[in-house]
Amino acid sequence: MLDLSKANTSWENWKKYLGQAMEFAEELGISRDKIQQYAMTAGSILADNVQPANPEQKVLKELWDVADRDEQEVIARLMTKLASRSR
């Protein structure tokens, strides 16, 4: 089970949380491509509805807000890559 209390604290905890979510998804048999599609959806939801909890999340939100769809896909892929290294 994922500990949601870690999701909006420090950058390191945020990356670890994302890594745990990815690991859980992979254990369920969800492909990396599908995880990246979910990351794209999550990025949009977070950017529109969640206040950044730290400076790094603020930068991500600002980048997301100015990015076009293709650039947002790159951000989502990079975040899944970063999260997979943070497990």
What keywords describe this structure?
87 residues, mainly alpha, 4 helices, globular
Overview of the structural elements:
By secondary structure, the protein is mainly alpha-helical. The protein has a domain at 31-86. Helix content is 74%, strand content 0%. The protein has four helices and no strands. It has helices spanning 11-27, 32-49, 55-66, 69-85. The two termini are 15 Å apart.
Furnish the topology, listing elements before pairings.
Blueprint (H helix, E strand, L loop, with lengths): L10 H17 L4 H18 L5 H12 L2 H17 L2
Global Rg: 12 Å
Number of strands: 0
Order of helices and strands: HHHH
Q: List the total number of helices.
A: 4
Helix vs. strand class: mainly alpha
Q: Major β-sheet, in short? A: none
Q: Can you tell me the residue ranges where pLDDT is under 50 for at least 5 consecutive residues?
A: none
Helix residue percentage = over 70%
Beta-strand fraction estimate: under 5%
Using the alpha-carbon principal axes, give the shape: globular
Distance between the termini: 15 Å
For the residues shown, what is the average pLDDT? 86
